[in-house]
């Protein structure tokens, strides 16, 4: 059984040009994930301290759970503690955070993250997740960090991953050489390799969407859902509907079993709900590295040129054939969301 730390070092050795900085960065994330996992597991026991609402709102106007703030602070501190990262952007931070100090001015990387996605599920003991995305900075070492460092298209990602705090806790990541999953063993205090080279089935029979919003969906989505629900033995339809209400959990299940997750545009959310930079791009990188696909219904998610930190996008991600079929219906019955 190989641990995540051993695997990172082993993989680094396969690339002579590797300097070890990305390995060190990934180890920072690993460490913060262990701490957050511990607090999530005891949230039910310490509602007054770590559970429930923080009483404040993030830039999205969403009520911050105490664990949202705690997870954000833990990952931010872990990333600042070493010298590989010059700044971060987070769903829980209004603006990007530059790590201003001598020891960070020459750092090569920026990290964008959703420190605790789906946190409203914690109080009802439903799984939640952390999502992260790593880029090389655009600004020159020694110069100030700028917004340009963060507004990069997903195709520039160096690495991406997620932690799913579920029935077991897993860390899944890619550095562009496949997708690898590690399961946390609390008796060892280590993430151990459990899913090397994850491949998402090209075809699947699971669709994940909040059908409560059906009336607001674009016609292309409505037509696709009816397609999923029709009986057709050859294509194993009707498909199964599975929606946990926690993006990382729905995504992780679909990665292993095949399936599609959709959060489309709707009348009350013209660009959907999910965030391009720290939710859709990292999961798109993982999906593509595992043989899957991610689009906004019309174009590849990772080719979208970002214009703001917290911008939203309609999102179709999962098994390639399923995303392509949904895109066919979107092209035939709907049009791209307004820029
Ligand atoms: P809805 C959680 O708030 C989240 O960002 C994702 O984790 C989840 O898939 C989605 O929103 C749920 O949104 O509108 O269906 O409740």
TrEMBL record:
Pathway noted in the entry: Carbohydrate biosynthesis; Calvin cycle
Reaction catalysed by this enzyme: beta-D-fructose 1,6-bisphosphate + H2O = beta-D-fructose 6-phosphate + phosphate
Organism annotation: Zobellella denitrificans
InterPro entries per the UniProt record, alphabetical: FBPase_C_dom, FBPase_class-1, FBPase_N, FBPtase, Fructose_bisphosphatase_AS
One Pfam family recorded for the sequence: FBPase_C
Annotated keywords: Carbohydrate metabolism, Cytoplasm, Hydrolase, Magnesium, Metal-binding
Domain of life: Bacteria
GO MF entries: fructose 1,6-bisphosphate 1-phosphatase activity; magnesium ion binding
Family: Belongs to the FBPase class 1 family.
Cofactor note: Binds 2 magnesium ions per subunit.
Compartments reported by the entry: Cytoplasm
Residues annotated to bind Mg(2+) 2: 114, 117, 279
Main localization (coarse): cytoplasm
Signal peptide: none
Subunit architecture: Homotetramer.
Residues given in the record as substrate binding sites: 117-120, 210, 243, 273
Required cofactor(s): Mg(2+)
EC number, UniProt record: 3.1.3.11
NCBIfam families per the UniProt record, alphabetical: PRK09293.1-1 (NF006778), PRK09293.1-3 (NF006779)
Name used for this protein in its record: Fructose-1,6-bisphosphatase class 1
Gene3D superfamilies cross-referenced by the UniProt entry: 3.40.190.80, Fructose-1,6-Bisphosphatase, subunit A, domain 1
Name of encoding gene: fbp
UniProt: Mg(2+) 1 binding residues: 91, 114, 116
GO BP, one annotated term: gluconeogenesis
GO cellular component terms given for this protein: cytosol
